């Protein structure tokens, strides 16, 4: 009996194409976008945290009674521009004795013994809401505070505020430019990866067209697969970024104070949706191109 060798041939199925290479390419591209988004987010959060911790010192007249001091605190706490933490206005009283102790501790010199008196004034330390840190608004707040009864002077580090505001604006500009460049680069990378993958199925696409299959019937398997690959790549990129964040939290615990889980979740969700959208768009254009090409151009 003659033994016949059976050769199993793997048939090409409509919509199938090399999986791992495309998945890796899309994941790497989306990972870059996610990485840049996280870096931009933390840079902006750090700048805003620095701005929110800028002190404004409201120095008081020396002849105020305890009742007048308490009334002034109440007026400060009712101002709409005063920042709140857990629902409590960030207004803190600093007596002139406490201020003197701080100055002596920082300078190492007992100026009270030298002068024979404490020349400092009682003050309230206040913090502003984020939207009031622009130069014009900050100046309006200072003028408003100085008009309160019992206020001698309002002092803040103007140069520091201007520097932080400039840094935030520069960060916003850099983010905008890099996002545009990065999105374009990533779109081209993913688009080319899917086009190369679909190149192996160009004849199968034409064969289906010749036997009467409609364009939507031919496109649908490719569109579903590409969209799924894009979404899966976005999920994998999000997992990698999440692992990276976890390691960063282990090494830098203070980083958790800047973390907004809602924003992080939005970035990860955007990566999944972006991957699916670019995959769908690239597959749609690639299949449409092969459907309209002349037969000779397919070779």
UniProtKB/TrEMBL annotation:
The keyword Phosphoprotein is assigned to this record: no
Q: Name one GO biological process term.
A: cell division
Supply the InterPro entries for this chain. FtsX (IPR004513), FtsX_ECD (IPR040690)
UniProt keyword list: Cell cycle, Cell division, Cell membrane, Membrane, Transmembrane, Transmembrane helix
Q: Which Gene3D superfamilies match?
A: 3.30.70.3040
Entry's Gene Ontology cellular component terms: membrane
Record bears the keyword Calcium: no
Q: Where is the FtsX extracellular domain?
A: 54-154
Membrane-crossing segments per the record: 21-43, 171-191, 228-249, 261-284
| UniProt record similarity statement | Belongs to the ABC-4 integral membrane protein family. FtsX subfamily.
Q: What is this protein called?
A: Cell division protein FtsX
Q: Which organism is it from?
A: Rapidithrix thailandica
Q: What is the lineage of its organism?
A: Bacteria, Pseudomonadati, Bacteroidota, Cytophagia, Cytophagales
